[in-house]
Amino acid sequence: MPMTEAPLQSAEDLERRLFEIGATRYHNLHPFHAMLHGGKLNRGQVQAWALNRYYYQSSIPLKDAIVVSRFRDRAIRVEWRHRIEDHDGSEGSEGGIERWLQLTDGLGLDRAYVESTAGLLPATRFAVDAYLNFVGTKTPLEAIASSLTELFAPTLHEERIAGMLEHYDFIDPSIMTYFQRRLEQAPRDANFALDYVKSHARTPEERQAVCDALTFKTNVLWVQLDALYHAYVSGFPPPGAFVPEEGR
User: Fold this and answer.
1) Coil, helix or strand for 169?
2) For the chain, how many structural domains are there in total?
3) Residue 45 counted as domain residue
């Protein structure tokens, strides 16, 4: 039988457990990422990754709008809503979704096709939609906790920028601005969320719920890479999914 983890008795216990989850379950450990960052994918496989990841990126402001709607506390809403603008953009700011579309443009994908999500893997849609459902149906504390994967994102973005620019002659620095911008945004967002769960999870049960929310989110990210690997590395894309051009 698996060992039962000790109850989390303090905010320090919680923070330590959260970083343990990140160290063992974050999707930087997935073999698809090792291939992506190490130059082991062809152009069509990179296209498939960017196309599928668009659905996740374009759903983030929907997720954040749901989180905002869960709080009567105006201060929390004010703090959280900048995330929506970070991705949707605002007057004078293109936003993360537009920067992601610049990536897919640069990879040679038709923008209308990407935005339509017609070529999406079913597992991508199911995973992202499950994330939206999670933040809408779980407690507000768990909704915020599910965003804590941002604690681990900057290191992944740094690896991605360096690895993809080094290994792919079809990647230009100008289309990597999404990741460069998130190097600044993610730590700010993650620090707020971490401080929030540490101060608002006051019982061992609430602290465990926070950890479970982060575990759920790591699963959401991991299963998307499982699907990409099965479809585009193992070679079994499901009916209707994007099929890269031969030989890319």
Assistant:
1) coil
2) 1
3) yes
